[in-house]
Amino acid sequence: EARSSGDAGGRPRRRVVVFPLPFQGHINPMLQLADALHDRGLAVTVLHTGFNAPDPTCRPEFRFVPVPDGVPGEVATSGDVIGILDAMNAAMEAEDSAALQGVLASVIADDEQPPVACIVFDSNLLAVPRAAAAVGLKTLVLRTASAACFGCFLAYPMLHRKGYLPPQESNMYMPVKELPPLRVRDLFYSSWSDQNKMSNLLARAIEAVNNSSGLVINTFDALEPAELEKIRKEFCVPVVLAPGPLHKLSSKSTGSSLLNEDCDCIKWLDKQPPKSVLYVSFGSLASLNANEFLEVAWGLTNSGHSFLWVVRPDLVRGLDNPGFPNGFEAAVEGRGKVIRWAPQQEVLAHSAVGGFWTHNGWNSTLESISERIPMICRPQFADQMMNTRYVEKTWGVGFELEGELKRGKIEKATRKLMEEREGDEMRERAKELKNKVGDSLRVGGSSQIAIDKLVKHILSLSL
Ligand code: UDP
Questions:
Q1: ipTM
Q2: Tens digit of pLDDT for each residue in 299-331?
Q3: Which amino acids bring their CB within 6 angstroms of ligand 1?
């Protein structure tokens, strides 16, 4: 159905505005969704903040329009995600979201472009619904985390009522029987100290969905059937669509990385035997302390396995560009490679990669599943714990590395995943799961149907 939404000459008849939350794990799926909509004949305008602004040259076919974000320099460089989010939302909501309204009004008024049908925004951008309503623009919400994660938003009041929350040290491993397979420790808000603020944020995210013209979740029906069904039952929005994994939906190859991807690592992978390499990356935000960093370095070394390890400049708390321990480089020569940022989807798709040690951000989880790669899971915050739980319990394609990070444990976990029977069984299940991804993406598959429905729905929305 490519180009189905263009006119007879193939020119777009409608335009969508997209507004991602400016963090890597949110920018990627939003731009992937925009690619898929563009492939199907819609024009795209991307709103972005100055903070973590995407590189417009990666997508010359899109328009990029800045929105003032009000994040002070020292907050922007602090690495404090919640602080940045608070500053951004406060600035965008100031004076009744006047600045954002102004941007939206001028985007709508741009008559060199096809008329705007709607704005697709990240549900964490709290100022969007009001500003969009003020200029008469319909909204669609993109959730970049799992359906299970949004299900937990909905369950928050129930979890309080039933005494699971606020969490107690003593009930961390208690199963939440209303939300299998989760335990109290897997609920992302267990880690939040300010429950009032949390409850307010969750309520606003839910309200944004309820007041929208539709909800898009980066997942697919066969992956989270019960979780999606629950959301479809509880919301009366016109559509709840699951066209994921979004990175597989468009044939476009350009990425949206905020850091430069080290593509030489692919040449290095080309020289390694099939399934021999453990890929190690903790995403764009999770970090280690200096001691954990050393334990990881020696654990990987002592495992005897080949590895490709992403060490971001800010991976180690308190150290810029951390140094490796004495003897590390010599010990791993030829079988260990360290890079600053990976072309991750390409790495995971490479035949030399046999395992992924991940923090289980939702994108990394989906990307791993899409390429049949089993996982060692080391979640830190937000939805990472619940993603780990699904990986281990529901899909059986990985296991958690729990407790203090120690080299001996890392060595054992690496061996388990890469050479032992249990690892092989996970690899088999990962293959089956990859087939389900393939089924959903095939013509007539659930994700293709969902994206086509979304395009139709967008075309039916008018100013
Ligand atoms: N990523 C990448 N190169 C890296 C590490 C991560 O391109 O070296 C990408 C990864 O493919 C994913 C995103 O960054 O799309 C991280 O999102 P995720 O939800 O996994 O984690 P977050 O960074 O939000 O914690």
A1: 0.99
A2: 999 999 999 999 999 999 988 778 898 999 999
A3: 23-25, 28, 257, 281, 283-286, 310, 341-342, 344-345, 361-364, 367
